[in-house]
Amino acid sequence: MFNYLRHINKTWINYVKLTRTNSYLKRMNSDDCNSKILDYKKIRNFSIVAHVDHGKSTLADRLLEKTGAIKPSTENAQVLDQLQVEKERGITVKAVTASLNYTYNNDSYLLNLIDTPGHVDFSNEVVRSVTACQGVILLVDANEGIQAQTVAVHSLAKRNNLIIIPTLNKVDLPRADPDKVKGQLNSLFNIDTNTVLSVSAKKGWGVEELLQAVITRIPPPDVDLNSYFKAHIIDTWHDKYRGVLCLAYIHSGTVEVGKAVKWKSSTKQHTVKYLALLRPGEEPIDKAIAGQVVMVGLGPKGGGSVGDHLLSVDAVENLETTSTQAIKHMVYAGIFPADQSQHVFLSDAIKKLALNDSAVSVNVDSSPALGQGWRVGFLGLLHLDVFTQRLLQEHKAEAILTAPSVPYKIKLKGAKIIRHYKSEEIIITNPLQLPDPQHIEEYYEPFVIGTIITPVQYIGAVTTLCVDRRGSPLPSNAVDDKMTMMQFILPLSEVVIDFHDTLKSITSGFASFDYQDYGFHPSALVRMDILLNGVLVDELTSIVHTSRLEYNARRLTEKLKEMIPRQMVQVAIQAVVLGKVFARETIKAYRKDVTAKLYGGDVTRRKKLLKQQAEGKKKMRSVANIKIPRDTFIDVLKR
After folding, report:
1. What letter would DSSP give residue 469?
2. What is the pLDDT of residues 421-434, one digit of tens each?
3. Alpha-carbon distance 372 to 362, whole Å?
4. How many C-beta neighbours within 10 Å does residue 7 have?
C-alpha cells in the first residue's frame, strides 16, 4: 500500500512538472511570436467578401488550418460562425476576426483575417470590417458566377481604396466554369483574368497560393508607431464577468496592459485591464502596436461603443476623426414582452444584444393592447428575424413582434404645427405618429436602387414584377451571353416584405438581388386604419400608397377574418381611409338557442328568454367596443 501511494505521488509530481513545462514553453513561444510580429511591415489586414453562400466561412476554415490555428478535422466546420443562429441557418451574421501566424520566405507574418457576412441585411458588418483592412479577398462561386452582392462588395472595396484579390471558389465541382466567370469579372469590373486565383475551399486546393498572394499583394498598414495611441472600435460585446469588451484597430502608437486611456466621447480615464489576440480563441498579450486588430477590455465600467475612438490620456482632445456613415434603418417593428412582468428582463436582454449588434436602434414604445415595449429599427427582415431569434436563444427572452413598417418623411405646413414638432420635416417610424392630414403638405417615401442579376430568359418576368411593385427601370448591363444585370428604382415598402421570395419563385431560384439606399422622394401616401366594431386598433394602422390602397385593405381584412377567433358577438372588420371604408369583413357571432330547453307553456316565456339574450348581446357588444382582449390579436400582430 505504501509503495502504491509513493507511485501515485511520484506520478502526480511528474504530471505537475510536465504541465508547468508545457505552459512555460507555450508562453515562451507566444512571447517569441509577439516579439517577431512587433514590426508593422509584417502585418496584413484583410477581409473575405462575397455574395451569400459562396464559401466564405469554408475558406476561413481552410485558412485557419493552413496557418495552424486549428487542427484539420471534420468537426471543425464554420469555426468563425460562433452564434447558434449562424450554425442553424448556415449564414454568417457577425464579422469575426482571427489573427493568424504564417511564415513566408523565412519571415513571420501576422495575418488579421475578418470573415464577413454575405447577406445585404448585414452589410453594416462588412462596412465596419473594411475600415480595419488594407485589402479584401473577393470570393466568387465558379458555378454561380457574379451575383448581386458581389457587385455591392466590389463597389465598397473600391470606395475604400482597398487592394482586391479576385478568387474563384468551388472549382472542383463538375458544373464549375472558371473561364466564364473570369470573363464576367473582366466585363463588369475590368479585372485582369491573369490575376484571378482559383481555389477549392472544401478540399483545400490553392489555399497556400492565396495566403502568399495576401502577403505579396496587400500592403502593410500605413501607421505611425511613434505617435500617441489611437484606435477605433470595430465591434463590442458583453461578458458576464469582464463587462464590455471591444475589438479595436490601432491607428497609431502602442498600448499595454495597465496603460491609462480615455474615450474620445468622454474625458474620463480608464485602465487597460485585458489585451488579447483572437486566434480565434483569446490569447492574452501584454502589448499591441499600430496596425494590429486586438481585443481590449477596460473593466466592468469601461464602456465603449462601436465607432468611438480610444486614445492616450495625453492626446489632444479635439482630434479629427474619420467620419462614419450614419446607419439607415430600413424596417421598424415593435417588440413587447409576452407578459409585462418580464419587461425588466427583456429590457436587459435587448440592451446586451444591441451592444453586440450596433446596427439596431432601440426606442421606448407603448401599446394599449400590448403594454410597454420598444420600437426597434433593423436593416431588413432577415436582420429582424435573426435579432428575435438571438433574444430567445442567447437570453431566453420571449417577445411579441408587431407588423414591420418602413420610415417615412413628412413635410408639415402651418406655423403652429411646425413649432410643435420644432422642424418643417419629420421622420415617421410608426404610423400612429402621423399628424392630421390637414397639417401635411407632402409625403416622402424611401426608395432603393435594386440590382438584379438574372438569366436572360427571365428578363420579362423580372420586369413585370418590378413594374407591378411601382419600380422604374434603369439601364441594364450584360454580364455575359446568358446573364444580365438589371437595375430598378423601387419603393422600400414594396421590397422588404416578400419581394425577394417572389423574385426567387419566378426565376426558379437563379436570380440574385441586392439594394442600396436612394433616399426619400415625394409619393402619394395615406394612412389606413383598421376598425373592429367601430373601434380603432392602433397596432394595425399602416401607411400605404394610393395605388395599392384597395388591394392592401382587402388583403388585411381577409387575413384578420381568418386569424381573429370567433366570439359571442358579431365583429365587423373595416379598413378605413379618411373616413371612407375601402374593405369590410364580418366575423359571425356564435349562435345559441336559448329556447331549446322549453318544452311547452305560454309563448311569453319564449319571448322573455329571447329578449334577455338580445340585451346580453348588446351589453357584450358595447364591452367589446371599449376593450379588446389582448390575446385575441397576438397572432395578428406577429409579422
Report:
1. T
2. 888 899 988 888 88
3. 13
4. 10
Cell of 39: 514590426
Per-residue pLDDT of 352-363, as tens digits, reads: 888 888 788 888
Q: CB burial class (10 A; 0-12, 13-18, 19+) of residue 118?
A: buried
C-alpha cell read off for 183: 470573363
DSSP string over 50-85: ESTTSSHHHHHHHHHHHTTSS---TT-SSTT--SHH
The answer to whether the CB of 193 falls within 8 A of the CB of 227 is: no
In sequence order, what are the residues at sequence separation of 6 or more whose Cβ sits closer than 8 angstroms to the Cβ of residue 143?
170, 173, 175, 176, 177
Q: What is the pLDDT of residues 83-108, one digit of tens each?
A: 777 667 777 777 788 899 999 988 99
pLDDT tens by residue, 279-313 = 888 899 999 999 999 999 988 877 778 888 889 88
Dist. CA 127–CA 116, nearest whole Å: 9
The pTM assigned to this predicted structure is 0.76
Beta bridge partners of 238: 244
DSSP state, residue 567: -
Nearest of 332, 331, 334 to residue 633 by alpha carbon = 334
Q: Which helix (H) or strand (E) holds 147?
A: none
Q: Which residues partner with 484 through β-bridges?
A: 454, 478
Calculate mean pLDDT across residues 547-557: 89
Cα–Cα distances in angstroms (integers) from residue 280 to residues 57, 81, 134, 304, in the given order: 13, 11, 20, 22
Q: What is the DSSP string of 227-244?
A: S--EEEEEEEEEETTTEE
